[in-house]
Specification:
The protein is α/β, with parallel strands linked by helices and 484 residues long. It has helices spanning 2-10, 24-44, 58-74, 96-115, 131-140, 156-166, 211-215, 223-235, 261-269, 289-297, 314-319, 326-339, 358-371, 398-419, and strands spanning 49-54, 77-78, 86-91, 120-125, 146-148, 170-172, 193-197, 199-200, 219-220, 240-244, 276-280, 304-306, 344-351, 375-380, 427-435, 442-447, 452-456, 465-473, 477-482. It has a six-stranded parallel β-sheet, with helices on both faces. Helix 1 (2-10) crosses helix 2 (24-44). The protein binds 5'-deoxyadenosine and iron/sulfur cluster. Iron/sulfur cluster binds at residues 202, 204-206, 209, 211-212, 246-247, 283.
Length: 484
């Protein structure tokens, strides 16, 4: 695939003005940037390096693969270490502590940059979509070179060229966009699995959440573009894909020719070579009967559903603007379990939303116990400026939230240790992901329901789907052995 991108880049004529059409314009700037990088690297007598750190969710991780693809085309070489010539942070702002981490690391980068003044520091992603963040950076973090947002990551090469040319901070953050630029390079972290964006943005405005403000309104990619991308990935050896969107269940509603998410799943399922299909994230209010039926009948769709609960209290759910009740959530779980009995359910839960009482919290614990989630991401409510909940007056004191958080986490862990082991002493299909970090001669892989298994095996099996007998349950993962 990379050859195709390289050829498109080489075909650009730098003696002419940059094209106005995308993505051609970006191929022009990639070529231009490549020349600058090459020249600098000859001057320095070594390759120029980059380091890219991705914070936050799967959408950001996928964006980072695109950023990585562009940087590699340009000729930068990746290094793990932040002592690089180009350091890029793809930021998250869903919770306040994500922002604090970035400011902390910027302080450290500044000390490195003092020793290497040619180093470039670039920041992009959700945090950059907040005006006060950009103001703060412009005022107190003058050593940052490039700032861009979530809507124009495809412009990375153009922005680097601009920074080289103008020798001062480049800031390019778009408030929103209705365009999706296709056909740019991307570099996958794993050769055998990949995320595929099917939509961008979110229209739900849950009252605590900053995502709709920083990722903009919902935009779906056309089924044609998605299917083409999946076909190419399959040709390139990918066996597992994860369809990504903030709310995949409302996929396709705003297309010229509307298509449902279930219909998309059916089409993706037909692509030869793709063995496993996952998707993330589902909003309970939009999860249709049609989708449940698709999950029941399409064998490639993995028996795993991430279904964020956020709270078990109907009163708090209303305040959160989630548009379902505790009872509706539980009914939905029943329906899904009835259709796909073995399904693994995971969730997100927030504790300490404004006005949450001990009774509300008990309702959350009740849902956790009733459903028996395989795992749950638990979060302490974080007040995000600009959201409706930030203006609510009855914020819960920190010590109470912390106490509830600890109790919730203990319960979630107790339950998941119990339910995760339900496939013990059976043989399951496992996609081998990598050699085990902790045990020599062992491999790490995942079951269709996303549970991890470690087993002895040869690294040549990485990327293959193999049969593994699950010998021992360790709570959150299994130990197993290969079945011949
Ligand atoms: N505070 C805490 N958690 C939050 N999330 C989103 N916004 C906030 C916030 N302000 C959580 C939700 C969401 C997950 C991705 O992050 O649980 O599902
Ligand atoms: Fe945020 Fe709600 Fe949209 Fe998820 S559905 S991104 S929680 S606003």
């Amino acid at each position: 695939m990379n050859d195709e991108y390289r050829l498109r880049m080489e075909a650009q004529d730098l003696t002419k003005q940059p094209p106005t059409e995308e993505p051609e314009r970006q191929y022009y700037f990639m070529k231009k940037c490549q020349e600058i990088v090459k020249k600098k690297s000859e001057e320095m007598g070594r390759p120029l390096t980059f380091s890219l750190t991705s914070f936050g969710c799967q959408m950001n991780a996928r964006d980072s693969e695109k950023l990585l693809g562009i940087l590699e085309q340009i000729g930068y070489e990746e290094t793990e270490d932040e002592h690089a010539d180009f350091v890029l942070y793809n930021t998250c702002t869903v919770r306040e502590n994500a922002n604090l981490r970035v400011y902390g690391r910027l302080g450290y980068l500044n000390t490195i940059k003092k020793k290497n003044p040619d180093m470039l520091i670039a920041l992009c992603g959700c945090m950059m979509q907040e005006q006060e963040v950009v103001e703060k950076l412009k005022k107190s973090y003058r050593f940052v070179d490039i700032i861009f947002g979530t809507h124009n990551i495809f412009k990375l090469a153009e922005l680097i060229v601009k920074r080289f040319e103008q020798q001062k901070m480049v800031v390019d953050v778009w408030e929103g966009t209705d365009r999706i630029v296709e056909e740019l390079p991307s570099e996958r972290k794993y050769p055998f699995k990949s995320g595929v964006n099917i939509m961008f943005g979110c229209n739900n405005f849950c009252s605590y959440c900053i995502v709709p403000y920083v990722r903009g309104r919902e935009r779906s990619r056309s089924p044609k573009d998605i299917l083409e991308e999946v076909r190419r990935l399959a040709d390139d050896g990918v066996v597992e894909i994860m369809l990504l969107g903030q709310n995949v269940n409302s996929y396709g509603k705003n297309l010229k020719n509307p298509v449902s998410f279930a219909q998309l799943l059916k089409q993706v399922s037909k692509i030869e070579g793709i063995e496993r299909i996952r998707f993330m994230t589902s909003h309970p209010k939009d999860l249709s009967e049609e989708l449940i039926e698709a999950m029941r009948t399409l064998p490639k769709v993995c028996p795993h559903l991430h279904l964020p609960l956020q709270s078990g209290s109907t009163r708090i759910l209303r305040e959160m603007n989630r548009r379902y009740t505790k009872e509706q959530y539980l009914e939905l779980v029943e329906k899904i379990r009835c259709a796909v009995p073995d399904i693994s359910l995971t969730t997100d839960i927030i504790v300490g939303f404004p006005g949450e009482t001990e009774e509300d919290f008990q309702e959350t614990l009740d849902v956790v116990q009733t459903v028996g989630f395989d795992s749950a991401f638990t979060f302490i409510y974080s007040r995000r400026t600009g959201t409706l909940a930030a203006k609510m007056e009855n914020q819960v004191p920190e010590d109470i939230v912390k106490d509830r958080f600890d109790r919730l986490l203990a319960e979630v862990q107790r339950i998941s240790a119990k339910v995760c082991g339900r496939h013990l002493h059976t043989t399951q299909k496992v996609l081998v992901e990598e050699p085990d970090d902790h045990a020599e001669g062992y491999l790490t892989g995942r079951l269709g329901n996303n549970t991890i298994v470690h087993f002895p095996g040869d690294p040549s099996l990485v990327g293959k789907i193999v049969d593994v007998y699950l010998e021992e349950s360790k709570g959150f993962y299994y130990m197993g052995r290969l079945e011949c």
